[in-house]
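Dear colleague,

As promised, here are the two records you asked about, laid out in our usual form so they can be pasted straight into your sheet.

NAME FIELD: protein one
SEQUENCE, THEN STRUCTURE:
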Amino acid sequence: MRIGNIDFVGYPLFLAPMEDVTDPSFRYMCKQFGADMVYTEFVSSDGLIRDAGKSMLKLKISEEERPVGVQIYGHLMEPMIEAAKIAAQVKPDVIDINFGCPVKKIANRGAGSGMMKEPDKMVEMTRRIVDSVKIPVTVKTRLGWDENSLIICELAERLQDAGIAALTIHGRTRSQLYKGEADWTLIGKVKNNSRMKIPVIGNGDINSPEIAKQRFDNYGIDAIMIGRSTYGCPWIFRNIRHYLEKGELLPEPDVNERVQIAKTHFIKSIEVKGEKVGVLEMRRHLSSYFKGLPDFKETRLKLVTENNPDTVLRLLDYVKERWGN
């Protein structure tokens, strides 16, 4: 599979862009466990144009995480074109357009999956963004706005004609949000359309090695993109790849390994964002790394309230001593 000048071999596994999750430190962790491609959190076109601090920080990428994509979203034509140009200045490997986010405050403004209501505008915006930058442009979208408007098959052809280098499809409508099961039948239909020449990447409910293999085998997709299942579990890429290549299931990391992973992630977060923000934004991850441990409530509370990095590291050592092997 090829996107722009990037060649992917075997079974490519991508990290989905997720707000407040796929920051540089988490992208780093997923790369360490074998993610072939990672994406930034989605970046507001309005924020980039206003030079807003939070939006500009999301453009911070490093060489060690390549190939990496910057994902932008917005509902206005000219700001989106300008945002793509700004994003291109940090030289990501791709610029991805978010036509899939179902969050109410975004979709109801006509951005994200709200664009599914205006496919003509979606296609025109895509074409103009493709024409405005020299970096490959990709799109992530959904099946349609609701079950009465499943437009993805025709839309995929039109987006391809607009010049995108790859298409990621989440197997739900906007109305479903993240409820119910993702429907991969239409993803497979798009992939197996003889007119489609660009890579088609499937997304939705990839939460185990067995399901990943089933998606590749049954639908012929070029790659899979994994989102929510990576949260607190960046090693899912390692486990899936091992199963795809060897046919064997790896055991889940024990507490000792999880502590080491959490430490590495924690230290990287501070390195990237500084002590105060790095500690604060790691809290959501630290509790997730140790889901299921018995009698962990009190320790979890300490992990997500402590501000001193050295104390957090000592708490992680305690987790290893108390629950490790």
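NAME FIELD: protein two
SEQUENCE, THEN STRUCTURE:
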Amino acid sequence: MARKNNKLRGLVILLILLIIVAGVLIFLKMYNKSNTNETTPQDNPLVALIEKEEPKKEINIYKGEDRPIAIMIDNVGNARPQSGLNDAYMVYEIIVEGQQTRLMALFKGANLSKVGPIRSSRHYFLDYALENNAIYVHYGWSPKAKSDISSLKVNNINGITESSSSFWRVKDKSAPHNVVTSTKKIMEIAKRKGYTTTSNKESVLKYTADELNLENGSEATSIKIPYSKTYYVTYKYDSESKKYTRYYNKTVQKDWQTKETVQTKNIIITFAKNSPLNDGSGKDRQNLSNIGTLDGYYITNGKAIKIKCKKTSRSAQTIYKDLEGNEIEVNDGNTFVQIVPLNAKITIQ
């Protein structure tokens, strides 16, 4: 008799549990339906219990609170190959005297034992260091750059004034194309000088974590950018890595230390007038007219679109817009910014 009563009691308890579960499910369904137009799964704690949120995609190329550092990189024949370009989130290339170019590589939170070879400052590179809120690193300066660094109060590190343990010459390149440093040494000097080493300033570029394809863009798997009669840059698209391999003239560019091929996810081309600068040196140093709205291209994933590049002052961040006036989004990845003469005959195909 006792066994029969226990069995009956178990059935009653099971029935009660089933009724409770059914009631909860009905309540959740009715509650969710009544709030469809008012709440989201994140606002509804009951729905959140049964609906798992997808993890939010984050930007990888520009993150953290480390303040960027901008390092002037030599780019004449004897200076190549360079070290560190693949680790920069942005690299600016601009023409200098002698129909050559110089590079400025920007790093954020990088830990590199060898960056270089490092060369002297030119004043218009300061504009792009300032808009990135970067500590500006160079080895010497032109008269105009020296004056502007002072008047603009640029947080800078001049390697010539530092010890040979912070900026040193290597033996496998000849002077003056053989000065290198490390990011650790740069940050040590910055702290000693009292510079802020953290930054919460937003990036110049508007990155997107979702893969961006320029559906209405033109074909851009091979790009040739001439800076002079003797020097040009070529990019060739690799559909597997979805990156562009960089060449100088006909030579593929590789890293000095790692031997890896230099590649980039994004290419921005900006047309800007350059002209001789009369600084009293007689060295044909250049000036750059980069304030205002300039024409250009944005290139990524094998496609190119025309853009406008707007910079309102030397320290203002450049805003890159499509021809409809919308600020463009840029793929999460490194970017080479090619600032070229107005008459440069760019080939994109």
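A couple of things worth noting about protein two: Residues 2-34 form the longest helix (33 residues). The chain has two domains: 2-50, 69-348.

Best,
R.
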